[in-house]
Design a protein that fits this description.
- This protein is an alpha/beta fold and about 210 residues long.
- Helices cover about 40% and strands about 15% of the residues.
- It has a single domain, classed as Rossmann fold, CATH 3.40.50.
- The protein has eight helices and six strands.
- It is globular, with a radius of gyration of 16 Å.
- Homodimer.
- Its EC number is 5.4.2.11.
- Catalyzes the interconversion of 2-phosphoglycerate and 3-phosphoglycerate.
Length: about 210
């Protein structure tokens, strides 16, 4: 009996548009972000999947994406579990800053290290390893058991919280995960064996849109 895990990164947020570090701050989707979420939902509807449960973060951009996807597959009232374990990486002192302003303040090289190293966090924030340290236990205790029971589970979350999951599912190294960008609103459909290994992965959309 195989279960299905679908991961969707939220659509563009207002702060994505303004080139700001967002992290745990809570801006809403832009009009484009709503379109991206609708596109992901339509792709899943065309794929013919319905879900047993949905998980999302405590942040509105992921919650709205989750709801838009569920609306598109005809499951507007599906049980949806929200938990900050699935929140975006916390950018600490960078949160709310324009990325260009951050480079002026700390220097291009230092900001690049914070953004693209695996285990060096920005001041007051989380590294990708830190993000994984809260995402993985939640996945193992709350999400994975339902998939292993044969359920179809939707997770609508964020670029870095989902990269933490993809790293494990796709068996990527620290170097490989740093090069991976997840497209907004593009569903990734994993089929899992009863031992939690991946049977198949399908990406329902245009990965060239990744940024």
């Amino acid at each position: 009996m195989s279960g299905t895990l679908v991961l969707v990164r939220h659509g563009q947020s207002d702060w994505n548009l303004k080139n700001l570090f967002t992290g745990w701050r809570d801006p809403d989707l832009t009009d484009l972000g709503v379109e991206e979420a609708n596109a992901g939902g339509k792709a899943l509807a065309d794929y013919g999947i319905t879900f047993d449960v949905a998980y999302t973060s405590s942040l509105i951009r992921a919650q709205r994406t989750c709801q838009i996807v569920l609306d598109n597959v005809g499951q507007s009232d599906l049980e949806t579990i929200r938990d900050e374990a699935l929140n975006e990486r916390d950018y600490g002192d960078l949160s709310g800053l324009n990325k260009d302003d951050a480079r002026e303040k700390w220097g291009e090289d230092q900001v690049h290290i914070w953004r693209r190293s695996y285990d060096i966090p920005p001041p007051g924030g989380e590294s990708l390893r830190d993000t994984g340290a809260r995402v993985w236990p939640y996945y193992l205790t709350e999400i994975l058991p339902r998939v292993l029971r044969g359920e179809k589970v939707l997770v609508a979350a964020h670029g870095n919280s989902l990269r933490s999951l993809v790293m494990v599912l796709d068996k990527l190294s620290k170097e490989e995960i740093l090069k991976l960008n997840l497209a907004t609103g593009v569903p990734m459909v994993y089929k899992l064996n009863a031992d939690s290994t991946v049977i198949s992965k399908e990406v329902l959309g245009d990965m060239s849109a990744a940024h």
